[in-house]
Amino acid sequence: xxxxxxxxxxxxxxxxxxxxxxxxxxxxxxxxxxxxxxxxxxxxxxxxxxxxxxxxxxxxxxxxxxxxxxxxxxxxxxxxxxxxxxxxxxxxxxxxxxxxxxxxxxxxxxxxxxxxxxxxxxxxxxxxxxxxxxxxxxxxxxxxxxxxxxxxxxxxxxxxxxxxxxxxxxxxxxxxxxxxxxxxxxxxxxxxxxxxxxxxxxxxxxxxxxxxxxxxxxxxxxxxxxxxxxxxxxxxxxxxxxxxxxxxxxxxxxxxxxxxxxxxxxxxxxxxxxxxxxxxxxxxxxxxxxxxxxxxxxxxxxxxxxxxxxxxxxxxxxxxxxxxxxxxxxxxxxxxxxxxxxxxxxxxxxxxxxxxxxxxxxxxxxxxxxxxxxxxxxxxxxxxxxxxxxxxxxxxxxxxxxxxxxxxxxxxxxxxxxxxxxxxxxxxxxxxxxxxxxxxxxxxxxxxxxxxxxxxxxxxxxxxxxxxxxxxxxxxxxxxxxxxxx
Length: 486
Ligand SMILES: Cc1cc2nc3c(=O)[nH]c(=O)nc-3n(C[C@H](O)[C@H](O)[C@H](O)COP(=O)(O)OP(=O)(O)OC[C@H]3O[C@@H](n4cnc5c(N)ncnc54)[C@H](O)[C@@H]3O)c2cc1C
What we know:
This protein has a domain at 64-146 and 215-318 and 415-486: FAD/NAD(P)-binding domain. It is 31% helix and 25% strand. The protein has helices at 2-12, 14-21, 27-44, 73-85, 107-110, 122-136, 138-142, 168-180, 190-196, 220-233, 295-301, 380-394, 441-458, 473-476; strands at residues 63-69, 94-98, 114-115, 155-156, 159-163, 185-188, 207-211, 216-217, 237-254, 260-273, 279-289, 319-330, 341-343, 349-352, 358-362, 402-414, 421-424, 431-435. The longest helix has 18 residues, at 27-44. Residues 69-75, 97-100, 103, 106-108, 110-114, 242-243, 290-294, 298, 324, 326, 409-412, 435, 437, 439-443 line the site of flavin-adenine dinucleotide (FAD). Required for the assembly of the mitochondrial membrane respiratory chain NADH dehydrogenase (Complex I). Involved in mid-late stages of complex I assembly. Keywords: Electron transport, FAD, Flavoprotein, Membrane, Mitochondrion, Mitochondrion inner membrane, Oxidoreductase, Respiratory chain, Transmembrane, Transmembrane helix, Transport. This is FAD-dependent oxidoreductase domain-containing protein 1.
């Protein structure tokens, strides 16, 4: 009441009259009076709207059913599918905690945006087949009423994988699997290759596989923003902050084999607020670890891997940062519009970037060459020594290329088998993973988000059985044997 009287007084009382009738004074004069008036009101109304101390909108809520750590493409995809599949609508509260809203170091925005069907493990083909449907019909999934349609700049183009004599039999088997799963991929002899792509030097190539549909590349930033816009419209909450701690309770249990294990449940997530020492606890029922290259560190915060070596409790989430360079070059004599996404037997890759004879590409370093992941500086010698020679050997026109720019990003690298980790942890029973995809997490995010949401809501995978991607394989030693890791 007091506040209302004062506010009305501003218009009609002496203060208000002073404002309304002032004539002829300078702007400085008037501004000075305004600030005096504000100060006076502020002293009477310490809880007034303009008092920033009382603005708490940047804080996370006190509780949320699901807390997703990481707002990259995987975290947002999980958020999307949780809201899409929840029954009844509005049943669950979902909070996404992201520490860097500029995404300056996130893998998603530093990737090269490729999607392919050419994997060797059926689950990977299935994931990418669903994802391509999602991407090609993006507005059926991510449209927001009254907003313009989303354009992710999808560029359809086949991947062209080249195999040496040594890799030819594996390639043939891979293509069998791809076709069984419904992907349209053809095998090409070196001669067929020369006829279709006359700019390729086929020396050292025994066989090639070429995707005839459902492959290409798109703008990862557009997908990220589209997902963000959509999940906000579905009621997902966002918080800018870093998850620094989990509060959990534990129960000692005995497994069937007699091993004693500590089952843990996370009750609270502590979020350190951006640019401050303050943290906020958020009560929760489920935590999704979608922290990308940092998800190994987030798992450690939950005590994962803090047990005797060789036990389930001592098994870490083997996901770490691995720095990868991408170089962008110009070459007026280079191949044209028909350039596919080429993967050389040496591991070097390239694709067209736009229509102006620009290309981008790179290659993964060997274990011994792994650069220090402490920063995202680019090593230009790596291009000269490791990338350019195989490029120029495969495409002689690239002898004359000129590098225009370059960047580095982090692979969310799974050191165990370079494949995704999906589903709950066997001991920290309410932490779920959506991470570790190494070089193919962007393209699989739409399908992985759905798989994690199915697990959270139904307790099992419904559409694609991803049991072989569970955390438990790190303990049992069963690797996902994917031949086409790039
Ligand atoms: C050079 C390069 C090329 C690539 N090319 C392709 C490609 O062609 N096709 C493809 O499918 N994939 C590609 N990838 C891989 C792909 O980019 C990743 O697998 C995918 O983007 C991972 O998504 P994400 O959401 O898990 O990770 P991110 O995008 O890294 O998001 C994770 C987020 O978690 C946040 N975070 C971390 N810790 C915390 C914390 N404690 N609290 C709060 N927030 C936290 C981070 O700030 C980050 O924004 C490429 C990657 C690189 C680096």
